[in-house]
Amino acid sequence: MKQLNRRQFLKRGSALLAAGSLPFSLVEVAFGKGSEENFTFAYISDSHITHVKGNQFVRNWDRGLIRAVAETNLMDPRPDFTFYGGDIAQLGKPEEIDHGLDILGGLKGKLHYVMGEHDYYVDLGDYWRKQLGPDWHSFDHKGVHFVVLNSILTHKEWMHKKWDSGMDRMKQMARLDNPNGSPFLVGEEQRTWLKNDLAKVSRDTPVIVFSHSPLQKIYKGWNFWTDDAEQVQALLKPFKKVTVLYGHVHQIQYNQIDNISFHAVMATAWPWPYPSTYKQAESHLPKLTIEMNRADPFHERDATGWQFINVATGNVDMHYLLPDNQNRIVGFDATKGHPVDKQYQIAENRIPPQIHY
Ligand SMILES: [Fe+2]
Ligand SMILES: [Fe+2]
């Protein structure tokens, strides 16, 4: 894995991308030199489109998504498809979902979606589903099996409590450190579906799973957490190469649990601080993860970003390009058997990348 500076990266990765950092992800899946199966896809996540009144929406979040769509359309070579990682809306209002989809409608090519909790809890996903289809599905593309899961369900007793309104339920779920909230869940129905779906897939086939919440347990207070994560991981265990890509946390995170590499993607809206900076509750931020610095509030796109993901060996190298921040590369180290940040992983050099203007 080689560290590329921004100029080299853009030159090598996509010559026609506009200079500067871009708030979406470019994913390259490659199985070795000369393979005809190499392809790329883009990844955009967590736009949190926020309705104010009438036709007014919060400008900053609109701009993040508009920029992502514009820059994705400039990609050369064209990505085979784009994936959207959830939380189109802030409070799940039809106006927010429609406005987000209007902006995303400018994208060229096929778009796949996963549901975020901000899309779901006002009406339990009815409007999102009407616009975008089922909560979970799988598809095959050029030798890779892709699985899309709805990981932001929760325990039925909580979901169907006697709420004042759907919006009351949404606002409870959207709050951080809320003792009246409830942890996320993939759930038995979906795990049964996943088990049957994976039964048809060869153990040698690379599997890439898209979820909104991490399919690992990081920080319960902010729902950086999926209650049945271990049961989902067990279903993925027979496969040689598995990668889980997730949104929701709005920050760089990476981890390796047995055969599964985990990587978070950046949001187009705003960054969350790392849970370890908040000590109210136990944090399980993966030891492998080296935090990036907090965002500069005077630069609205700082700590939002996009990734170039290279799966040249069937494992993932994530190339993060970060507006007004230093680029990061987190790649799979075959000798260590887990992802490492080559520039920052060495213990004596655990200094997060700093903003440089
Ligand atoms: Fe989000
Ligand atoms: Fe979320």
Lay out the secondary structure:
Blueprint lengths: L5 H8 L11 E5 L9 E6 L6 E3 L2 E2 L1 H15 L7 E4 L9 H11 L5 E4 L3 H4 L5 H7 L4 E5 L2 E5 L4 E2 L1 H4 L6 H9 L9 E2 L2 H12 L7 E5 L17 H8 L5 E5 L7 E4 L2 E5 L41 E5 L6 E5 L6 E6 L4 E4 L16
Parallel strand pairs: 1-15, 2-5, 5-6, 8-11, 11-12, 12-14
Antiparallel strand pairs: 1-2, 3-4, 7-8, 9-10, 13-14, 15-16, 16-17, 17-18
Helix pairs in contact: 8-9
Structure description:
This protein has 357 residues and is of the alpha/beta class. The chain has a single domain, classed as 4-Layer Sandwich (Purple Acid Phosphatase, chain A, domain 2), CATH 3.60.21.10. Helices cover 22% and strands 22% of the residues. It has an eight-stranded mixed β-sheet, covered by helices on one side. The chain has a six-stranded mixed β-sheet with strand order 7-8-11-12-14-13, with no helix packed on it. A two-stranded antiparallel ribbon has the order 3-4. Strand 16 (317-321) and strand 17 (328-333) form a beta hairpin. Helix 8 (188-199) runs parallel beside helix 9. The longest helix is centred in the N-terminal third of the chain and has 15 residues, at 59-73.
